[in-house]
Amino acid sequence: MRVSQGQFRAGIFSGEERPAVGHRRSFASAALAGLVLVAIAAAAPESSPIPRSATSIHYAPAENLERIDVSLIDQAEREIDMAAYVLTDWPVMQALSRAARRGVKIRIYLDYGRIGQRDPSAPFMDLLDNPDIEIGLKRAGAPLMHLKSYQIDGAILRTGAANFSASGLKKQDNDLIIVDDPAAAADFKRRFEEIFAASEPLPSEAHDRRMKFFEAGAG
Protein backbone atom coordinates (compact mmCIF):
# COMPACT_ATOMS: atom_id res chain seq x y z
CA MET A 1 0.00 0.00 0.00
CA ARG A 2 1.36 3.47 -0.88
CA VAL A 3 1.34 5.84 2.06
CA SER A 4 2.21 9.50 1.89
CA GLN A 5 4.65 11.04 4.33
CA GLY A 6 1.91 13.44 5.35
CA GLN A 7 -0.34 10.57 6.38
CA PHE A 8 2.51 8.88 8.20
CA ARG A 9 3.34 12.03 10.20
CA ALA A 10 -0.31 12.70 10.99
CA GLY A 11 -0.68 9.29 12.65
CA ILE A 12 -4.09 8.59 11.15
CA PHE A 13 -3.57 4.91 10.41
CA SER A 14 -5.56 2.15 12.07
CA GLY A 15 -3.85 -1.04 13.11
CA GLU A 16 -4.72 -2.62 9.74
CA GLU A 17 -3.55 0.39 7.75
CA ARG A 18 -0.35 1.08 9.64
CA PRO A 19 2.57 0.54 7.28
CA ALA A 20 4.93 -2.33 7.83
CA VAL A 21 8.21 -1.89 9.65
CA GLY A 22 10.09 -1.86 6.35
CA HIS A 23 7.97 1.03 5.14
CA ARG A 24 8.55 2.93 8.37
CA ARG A 25 12.30 2.45 8.04
CA SER A 26 12.28 3.67 4.44
CA PHE A 27 10.36 6.77 5.50
CA ALA A 28 12.82 7.38 8.31
CA SER A 29 15.76 6.99 5.93
CA ALA A 30 14.21 9.42 3.45
CA ALA A 31 13.59 11.95 6.21
CA LEU A 32 17.19 11.64 7.42
CA ALA A 33 18.52 12.05 3.89
CA GLY A 34 16.42 15.17 3.50
CA LEU A 35 17.84 16.65 6.69
CA VAL A 36 21.38 15.92 5.49
CA LEU A 37 20.73 17.69 2.18
CA VAL A 38 19.30 20.70 3.97
CA ALA A 39 22.37 20.85 6.21
CA ILE A 40 24.74 20.63 3.23
CA ALA A 41 22.87 23.37 1.39
CA ALA A 42 22.98 25.62 4.44
CA ALA A 43 26.72 25.10 4.84
CA ALA A 44 27.55 25.73 1.17
CA PRO A 45 28.72 29.27 0.33
CA GLU A 46 26.26 31.43 -1.57
CA SER A 47 27.09 31.90 -5.24
CA SER A 48 27.59 35.42 -6.50
CA PRO A 49 24.63 36.76 -8.46
CA ILE A 50 25.10 37.00 -12.20
CA PRO A 51 25.62 40.69 -13.00
CA ARG A 52 22.82 42.12 -15.09
CA SER A 53 22.63 45.49 -16.79
CA ALA A 54 19.42 47.42 -17.16
CA THR A 55 19.19 48.06 -20.89
CA SER A 56 16.46 49.95 -22.69
CA ILE A 57 16.08 50.43 -26.44
CA HIS A 58 14.12 53.26 -28.01
CA TYR A 59 13.14 53.74 -31.64
CA ALA A 60 12.58 56.80 -33.79
CA PRO A 61 10.34 58.06 -35.24
CA ALA A 62 7.89 56.22 -32.97
CA GLU A 63 9.64 57.90 -30.04
CA ASN A 64 11.22 61.32 -29.77
CA LEU A 65 14.83 60.38 -29.07
CA GLU A 66 15.81 64.01 -28.69
CA ARG A 67 13.81 64.22 -25.46
CA ILE A 68 15.56 61.12 -24.14
CA ASP A 69 19.04 62.52 -24.86
CA VAL A 70 18.18 65.86 -23.29
CA SER A 71 16.78 64.15 -20.20
CA LEU A 72 19.90 62.01 -19.80
CA ILE A 73 22.28 64.95 -20.20
CA ASP A 74 20.25 67.02 -17.73
CA GLN A 75 20.79 64.28 -15.13
CA ALA A 76 24.59 64.39 -15.35
CA GLU A 77 26.36 65.47 -12.17
CA ARG A 78 30.10 65.01 -12.78
CA GLU A 79 31.15 64.16 -16.33
CA ILE A 80 30.04 63.49 -19.88
CA ASP A 81 32.29 61.96 -22.54
CA MET A 82 30.63 62.17 -25.95
CA ALA A 83 31.75 60.81 -29.31
CA ALA A 84 29.51 62.33 -31.97
CA TYR A 85 29.72 61.77 -35.70
CA VAL A 86 27.08 64.47 -36.11
CA LEU A 87 26.30 67.11 -33.48
CA THR A 88 23.79 69.59 -34.85
CA ASP A 89 20.69 69.14 -32.69
CA TRP A 90 20.02 72.38 -30.84
CA PRO A 91 18.30 70.97 -27.71
CA VAL A 92 21.10 68.41 -27.24
CA MET A 93 23.81 71.08 -27.54
CA GLN A 94 21.88 73.39 -25.23
CA ALA A 95 21.62 70.57 -22.68
CA LEU A 96 25.40 70.11 -22.88
CA SER A 97 25.91 73.83 -22.23
CA ARG A 98 23.57 73.69 -19.23
CA ALA A 99 25.49 70.73 -17.86
CA ALA A 100 28.79 72.59 -18.19
CA ARG A 101 27.35 75.62 -16.40
CA ARG A 102 26.44 73.48 -13.40
CA GLY A 103 29.98 72.12 -13.18
CA VAL A 104 29.83 68.95 -15.26
CA LYS A 105 33.12 68.14 -17.00
CA ILE A 106 32.40 67.64 -20.71
CA ARG A 107 34.58 66.27 -23.49
CA ILE A 108 33.30 65.99 -27.06
CA TYR A 109 35.05 64.07 -29.84
CA LEU A 110 33.97 64.89 -33.39
CA ASP A 111 34.71 63.67 -36.90
CA TYR A 112 36.87 66.14 -38.80
CA GLY A 113 35.00 65.60 -42.05
CA ARG A 114 31.73 66.87 -40.57
CA ILE A 115 33.24 70.20 -39.56
CA GLY A 116 32.89 72.97 -42.10
CA GLN A 117 29.90 71.53 -43.95
CA ARG A 118 27.84 74.46 -42.68
CA ASP A 119 28.29 77.57 -40.56
CA PRO A 120 28.33 76.80 -36.84
CA SER A 121 25.00 77.27 -35.09
CA ALA A 122 24.55 79.48 -32.05
CA PRO A 123 24.35 76.49 -29.66
CA PHE A 124 27.57 75.06 -31.11
CA MET A 125 29.30 78.41 -30.68
CA ASP A 126 28.17 78.35 -27.05
CA LEU A 127 29.95 75.01 -26.64
CA LEU A 128 33.11 76.51 -28.13
CA ASP A 129 32.89 79.57 -25.89
CA ASN A 130 32.68 77.50 -22.71
CA PRO A 131 36.16 76.91 -21.24
CA ASP A 132 34.86 73.91 -19.29
CA ILE A 133 34.05 72.00 -22.48
CA GLU A 134 36.87 70.26 -24.34
CA ILE A 135 36.30 69.55 -28.03
CA GLY A 136 38.62 67.35 -30.07
CA LEU A 137 38.62 66.31 -33.71
CA LYS A 138 39.69 63.06 -35.28
CA ARG A 139 42.62 63.76 -37.58
CA ALA A 140 41.84 64.87 -41.10
CA GLY A 141 42.11 62.07 -43.63
CA ALA A 142 41.64 59.33 -41.04
CA PRO A 143 38.76 56.84 -41.30
CA LEU A 144 35.42 58.10 -40.04
CA MET A 145 34.73 58.64 -36.37
CA HIS A 146 31.26 57.13 -36.62
CA LEU A 147 30.26 56.71 -32.97
CA LYS A 148 27.05 58.21 -31.58
CA SER A 149 27.68 57.54 -27.93
CA TYR A 150 28.35 59.09 -24.56
CA GLN A 151 28.86 58.03 -20.97
CA ILE A 152 27.50 59.87 -17.96
CA ASP A 153 29.14 59.88 -14.52
CA GLY A 154 30.76 56.49 -15.12
CA ALA A 155 27.35 54.90 -14.70
CA ILE A 156 25.29 55.15 -17.90
CA LEU A 157 26.17 54.48 -21.53
CA ARG A 158 24.13 55.90 -24.39
CA THR A 159 24.75 54.39 -27.81
CA GLY A 160 22.84 53.32 -30.92
CA ALA A 161 22.40 54.35 -34.54
CA ALA A 162 20.84 57.77 -33.96
CA ASN A 163 23.03 60.77 -34.73
CA PHE A 164 22.72 63.88 -32.58
CA SER A 165 20.69 65.70 -35.22
CA ALA A 166 17.04 66.70 -35.39
CA SER A 167 16.35 64.27 -38.24
CA GLY A 168 18.36 61.45 -36.68
CA LEU A 169 16.58 61.74 -33.36
CA LYS A 170 13.04 62.42 -34.55
CA LYS A 171 12.46 61.52 -38.20
CA GLN A 172 14.74 58.70 -39.36
CA ASP A 173 14.40 55.01 -38.52
CA ASN A 174 16.95 54.87 -35.73
CA ASP A 175 17.53 53.33 -32.36
CA LEU A 176 18.91 54.70 -29.12
CA ILE A 177 20.23 52.26 -26.53
CA ILE A 178 20.68 53.11 -22.86
CA VAL A 179 22.81 50.76 -20.76
CA ASP A 180 22.53 51.54 -17.05
CA ASP A 181 25.69 49.68 -16.08
CA PRO A 182 28.96 51.10 -14.70
CA ALA A 183 30.97 48.34 -16.41
CA ALA A 184 29.61 49.31 -19.83
CA ALA A 185 30.24 52.99 -19.14
CA ALA A 186 33.79 52.18 -18.03
CA ASP A 187 34.48 50.18 -21.20
CA PHE A 188 33.37 53.11 -23.33
CA LYS A 189 35.39 55.58 -21.27
CA ARG A 190 38.57 53.51 -21.70
CA ARG A 191 38.12 53.61 -25.46
CA PHE A 192 37.21 57.29 -25.35
CA GLU A 193 40.42 58.10 -23.47
CA GLU A 194 42.43 56.47 -26.25
CA ILE A 195 40.75 58.22 -29.15
CA PHE A 196 40.45 61.60 -27.43
CA ALA A 197 44.16 61.56 -26.55
CA ALA A 198 44.94 61.35 -30.27
CA SER A 199 42.50 64.09 -31.28
CA GLU A 200 43.30 67.49 -32.74
CA PRO A 201 42.10 70.57 -30.85
CA LEU A 202 39.34 72.69 -32.27
CA PRO A 203 40.45 76.35 -32.49
CA SER A 204 38.37 78.50 -30.16
CA GLU A 205 40.16 81.83 -29.78
CA ALA A 206 38.23 84.45 -31.73
CA HIS A 207 34.94 84.34 -33.59
CA ASP A 208 36.47 85.28 -36.94
CA ARG A 209 39.21 82.64 -36.63
CA ARG A 210 36.62 79.98 -35.85
CA MET A 211 34.59 80.97 -38.89
CA LYS A 212 37.69 80.70 -41.09
CA PHE A 213 38.41 77.30 -39.58
CA PHE A 214 34.94 76.10 -40.44
CA GLU A 215 35.24 77.47 -43.96
CA ALA A 216 38.64 75.81 -44.42
CA GLY A 217 37.22 72.50 -43.31
CA ALA A 218 34.41 72.60 -45.83
CA GLY A 219 36.28 70.48 -48.36
Automatic annotation (TrEMBL):
Broadest EC class assigned to this enzyme: hydrolase
Entry superkingdom: Bacteria
Entry keyword RNA-binding: no
Entry's Gene Ontology molecular function annotations: phospholipase D activity; RNA endonuclease activity producing 5'-phosphomonoesters, hydrolytic mechanism
E.C. no: 3.1.4.4
Pfam families named in the record: PLDc_2
Domain annotation Phospholipase D-like: ranges: 71-195
Catalytic activity: a 1,2-diacyl-sn-glycero-3-phosphocholine + H2O = a 1,2-diacyl-sn-glycero-3-phosphate + choline + H(+)
InterPro entries: PLD-like_dom, PLD_domain
Coiled coil: none
GO biological process: lipid catabolic process
UniProt KW keywords: Hydrolase, Lipid degradation, Lipid metabolism
Family affiliation: Belongs to the phospholipase D family.
Protein name: phospholipase D
Source organism (scientific name): Methylocella silvestris
